[in-house]
Amino acid sequence: MVYTFTCSQGHDPVTFTAEAENDDEAVAKLMEEARGHLAEVHPDLASMSPDQTKQVIISNWTKSES
Ligand SMILES: [Zn+2]
Question: Which domain of life is it from (predicted)?
């Protein structure tokens, strides 16, 4: 599956994608990929707990067959 997480909170949409076997793997990859963006643009999100960040990603991502 290809997981796509689009962040558009207060700026033009920025898209992160990860290919993963399951949701857990996808969350890990997307958190890793989005870390710099979150730290730079969303310090409030970057200071959330990993569980909270996970929820933000899961509630905003889309999945498609690779
Ligand atoms: Zn953002």
Answer: Bacteria
Predicted structure pTM score: 0.86
Cα 32 to middle of ligand 1, angstroms? 14
* Residues 34-54 pLDDT 10s: 989 988 998 887 788 889 889
Using the mean position of ligand 1's atoms as its centre, give its distance from the Cα of residue 12 in Å: 8
Enclosing H/E stretch for 7: strand 2-7
Tally: H helices and E strands in the chain: 3, 3
Q: Please give the residue range of the domain that contains residue 49.
A: 2-64
